[in-house]
Design goal:
Elements (H helix, E strand, L loop, with lengths): L5 E12 L2 E12 L3 E6 L5 H9 L6 E6 L2 E3 L4 H7 L1 E4 L11 H5 L14 H14 L15 H14 L4 E5 L7 H16 L3 E5 L3 H7 L2 E6 L2 E7 L5 H9 L17 E9 L7 E6 L3 E6 L5 H8 L7 E6 L2 E2 L5 H6 L2 E4 L3 H4 L7 H6 L15 H14 L16 H13 L5 E5 L7 H16 L3 E5 L3 H7 L2 E6 L2 E7 L6 H8 L9
Parallel strand pairs: 3-8, 3-9, 6-7, 7-8, 13-18, 13-19, 16-17, 17-18
Antiparallel strand pairs: 1-2, 1-4, 4-5, 9-10, 11-12, 11-14, 14-15, 19-20
Length: 505
């Protein structure tokens, strides 16, 4: 029998949910040993299609062929048995069990007595961890790993099934740059062995680094499949959002006014030392640096989340004592956290509650009760003002897209009427169209005279949005750079790695 050209063929796949058609006649072909990227905005249908493939959902209509056979009405366990595995975006490890038990859960090796052979499980785990270059004892409890290492264990688990096709849904979202390159080496080894990979990501730069083919989704449809070397990033973005996007970063010069925030010789006991800078009205100061440089810890300390060891913070030229976020808010500061799911949103509460939660004092009646009608009205105004897409104010925020969740958090802080916005990775985990909307909001706020400090791991974002850039390396400032036309990523990276000849002591 002649082997089909494609390992996977999904033909005219449709998937309906109550009131929503999530997939509309989607076709997808994946060859043997191919790295096939899926890109598109949140809600475009990428993950839904893959959940149909892995057996989580049953397609409403359409056909699926895998390794030459038509497959239908199957479970996730059946999919694994056929050689299809998936690394999900949301991790769900068994935290208080060791790595090896997480790797072989439900398929533990047994001895002659039918009991779990822990020694064999340990040896098998060592082998698969070595394959992904993860130097951890298989007996380590998952709860003691970083999120990035938990993600690597999930990758090891997928590989351990000896799958013919591995679906990776945002696998690099929690990884450092070094770990990301480690992941890419693993993917290339899989390709050499003939394993196919479907790679879903919002990071277009890594798509160009790792993929052979890219399929673009928009509004539940496949709007194009092409070899990656035949496309530019601008073409992919235009396909994703359905309109021309001449400028990804809509930064326009704002009128720069007086100094609002000054930080003098700020130090933390562990993470950074002697950080000094100032930010003026209408200015965006970007903070760049590699993972572990201390960027997040600096703005957390300014906002009172972490205690400072020494140094001074001044607002409008006046020294202020900030020992808690309450003190920071009282001094007209706001803080968008790095991980909105863990430390930002209240996932099961409504959009209105998430916006109003630090602001209820504004809505108290004379006898001390909250005027809920006034809360709804104010929240509705912000939903309209910054174009938050939600069916209602009561909608649980966990059901919104990442971009809309981020807008809700911005609305929360704008309601406090801040002078200073501290933004930590404001576009992490959101699609390119939503990123552009967040950038427009940030630009608008600078134009209104807000003082903005923005931490980002994405150098194009830092260069595209900042007036000046503070660069950190291992807890130290290595420079504050004016964002002039001749400034480029290479120069910022030299400061970020501490290798520029001019960096400050």
């Amino acid at each position: 029998m002649v082997r089909d050209e494609y390992l996977l063929k999904m033909v005219n796949i449709e998937k309906n949910f109550p009131g929503v058609q999530a997939l509309k006649g989607v076709n997808l072909n994946v060859s043997y040993g191919e790295i096939h990227a899926l890109v598109g905005e949140n809600g475009a249908g990428k993950s839904t299609l893959m959940k149909c493939l892995i057996g989580i959902y049953s397609p409403t209509s359409g056909e699926i062929f895998f390794d030459g056979q038509r497959i239908d009405h199957y479970s996730t366990a059946d999919a694994l048995g056929m050689g299809i595995s998936m690394i999900h975006q949301e991790l769900s490890p068994v935290l208080y069990r060791p790595i090896m038990e997480n790797l072989w859960l439900g398929r533990e090796p047994l001895n002659k007595l039918g009991l779990v052979d822990h020694q064999k499980m340990y040896e098998m785990s060592l082998a698969v961890l070595k394959e992904i270059e993860l130097d951890e004892d298989p007996r380590t409890l998952m709860v003691n790993l970083t999120v990035a290492k938990m993600q690597m264990v999930e990758i090891a688990k997928a590989i351990s099934y000896d799958a013919k096709l591995i679906i990776m849904d945002e696998p690099s979202s929690a990884l450092t740059e070094h770990e990301e390159q480690q992941l890419f080496r693993i993917i290339r080894k899989l390709k050499e062995k003939g394993t196919s990979v479907v790679y879903i990501s919002h990071r277009l730069s890594e798509i160009f680094e790792i993929a052979d083919i890219v399929t673009v989704f928009r509004d539940g449809k496949n709007v194009g499949t092409e070899r990656i070397d035949q496309l530019t990033m601008e073409q992919i973005i235009e396909m994703m959002i359905g309109r021309t996007m001449d400028e990804m970063y809509p930064k326009v010069p704002a009128e720069i006014g007086e100094t609002i925030l000054q930080v003098k010789n700020l130090s933390h006991r562990k993470f950074f030392r002697n950080i000094s800078f100032e930010v003026r009205k209408g200015e965006i100061l970007g903070i760049a640096g590699l993972v572990g440089a201390g960027r997040t810890e600096v703005i957390e300390t300014i906002f009172g989340v972490r205690p400072k060891l020494s140094g001074e913070i001044l607002v409008h030229g006046r020294p202020v004592a900030i020992n808690s976020p309450r003190d920071a808010i009282a001094n007209k500061m706001s803080f968008l956290t790095e991980d909105r799911r863990a430390t930002g949103i209240f996932s099961v509460l409504g959009v209105d509650t998430n916006i109003a939660i630090p602001n209820y004092d504004q809505f108290l009646t004379k006898i001390g009760f909250v005027d809920h009608a006034a809360v709804k009205e104010a929240c509705s105004d912000y939903v309209d003002k910054i174009q938050i897409k939600t069916p209602s104010l009561d909608q649980a925020i966990q059901h919104l897209s990442g971009g809309n969740q981020q807008k809700v958090l911005l609305a929360r802080w704008l309601m406090t009427v801040p002078d200073i916005l501290l933004l930590d990775e404001p576009t992490r985990g959101i699609d390119v169209g939503a990123k552009a909307e967040i950038y427009r909001l940030i630009t608008m706020l600078a134009g209104q005279g807000k003082c903005i400090v923005m931490v980002s791991s994405e150098l194009p974002e830092i260069l595209g949005m900042s007036d000046r850039i503070l660069v950190m390396h291992e807890g130290k400032m290595t420079g504050i750079l004016d964002n002039t036309p001749d400034l480029n990523q290479n120069k910022v990276m030299r400061y970020a790695t501490g290798t520029d000849d001019d960096f400050l002591d």
